[in-house]
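input
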Amino acid sequence: MLFIANGTLYPMTGGKERVERGSIAVEDGKILRAGTGFSYEDICTALHRPEGAREKDTYIDAGGNWVMPGIIESHCHMGITEEKKGMEGDDCNEMVDPITPQLRAIDAINSMDAAFDDAVRAGITSAMIGPGSSNVVGGQFAFVKTKGRRIDDLIVRAPAAMKVAFGENPKVNYGDQDKSPSTRMAIAAMLREELTCARAYQRKKNQAGDDFEEDFHYEAWLPVLDRKIPLKAHVHRADDIFTAIRIAEEFGLCMTLDHCSEGHMIAEEIKASGFPAIVGPDLASRSKIEVQNMAFKTAGVLNAHGVKVAITTDHPVSIIASLPLCAGLAVKAGLPLMEGLRAITIYAAQICGVDDRVGSLETGKDGDIVIFDGNPMEIFTHTLMTIIDGKIVYRNTHF
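output
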């Protein structure tokens, strides 16, 4: 068992934003209890834990420091676009075919990429990772933990989303090859055609029975059509956001609006659509036309209109360790402080469809916990300890 005592807890759910002198008990990687009114001895008694077994337990005095659920990166390319390796470590975009739903992130994520260690040191315990935005359909994202050698052992959910992209990236990548799509019209048309074929495939499979010959390409679409996972739509400009909404509504699909750089300009319409937004990377240059209106205020404006918002670094566009600082800059630009923390914990978990496992300090959830010596959204705050599945994976030498 791992037991944390004397912490200032930020549970992210429930009636209290902050719990003074709180404790957390973790057994077999899951949170047994979090809050006040119990001690380590109480938990040992409840578990009928003999004295000999207690010698193997880990007891941590948090010293009044901040204790939070692990931070969540809701959209990145960590381990697919590896650091320090150039072309040899870049597996982010398969730029020979604009429609590649069958690609799986888990086949390209190198969990020994240096960025994973940076994430752990920043208190980031899980991340949504997948292909880039060069293709109209890029492939399947996976939601994974951030510590371990073998990606198969880190998976929380895979597939977790289907990447689709609108706007400049597919246009430029294929227009430069004298191939379609070279216009926004073609991007939308190709996606509609693909979804129409996938739906026809689904009908045939449902009607055929056991003798049906599966198609690997279209099998990837079934969890999307069954609304088990969302489209993960790369959209910056307002018109691209509207096109993504239009197509998702036409086919009755779930979707997340990733980047959403002009979301503050159309906040009422996004709220009406019901789709959540993953905002960022705002800690980056305005390197192309479609991000010319990018601003840290976007998250706050959307939140004020009732849109559920998470924040992303889009690593390596902004480095993964800057995620809590990006949330802090969004708070500085108008997002309420607790909403900033939720945007990188419980809201990120809900948007990624994994809030049954991570995102808050609740009984039954994974023991992903971080101890900070202050607000993690402030520049001088240190990560004191990172815990994943009840195991300490990073400890500051001064703690």
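quick obs: The mean pLDDT is 96.
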